[in-house]
């Protein structure tokens, strides 16, 4: 919110939301009114412009290069459990311009189970601690 609030560069914003008087507001207004304020700006206009350019650059979606599926997906299976394996490619470009392509082959079902197991290990003690904290905090 701080990075998009024009108040910090000495301006005041009006009509930010559509239909403000309605009980259910429609959302943000495309063209809010921004006027010069009488307060001293905290951030310079040049720094504000740099931040807005950086925010716009970061908000652009990255390009998707490979929309097709990997040729090994669905063909290979785990030698131990016979579960289907999925393959994915990752390309890493170094400073000198050389590209490294890494192929990762994994058993997806075990990856999901491992994530659930880790979450359970992490969250169960936290929930127990929270239950004890609320129980004993009510007593005091």
Walk me through the structure.
Pfam families: Recombinase (PF07508). The chain starts with 10 loop residues before the first strand and ends with a helix. The longest helix is centred in the C-terminal third of the chain and has 32 residues, at 108-139. The chain has 2 helices and 6 strands. It has 2 domains: 2-59, no CATH class; 85-139, no CATH class. The protein has helices at 45-59, 108-139, and strands spanning 11-14, 17-18, 27-28, 33-36, 85-93, 99-107.
What order do the strands of the largest sheet run in, or round the barrel if closed?
1-4
Rg computed from alpha carbons, rounded to a whole number of angstroms: 26 Å
Helix coverage percent of residues? Answer: 25-40%
| Beta-strand residue percentage | 15-25%
Provide the succession of SSEs.
EEEEHEEH
Give the end-to-end Cα distance, rounded to a whole number of Å: 39 Å
Shape: elongated
Q: Could you give the count of β-strands?
A: 6
* Contiguous helical run count: 2
Major sheet attributes:
2 strands, antiparallel
Average residue pLDDT: 73
What structural category arises from helix and sheet content? alpha+beta
Brief summary:
With 140 residues, the chain is of the alpha+beta class.
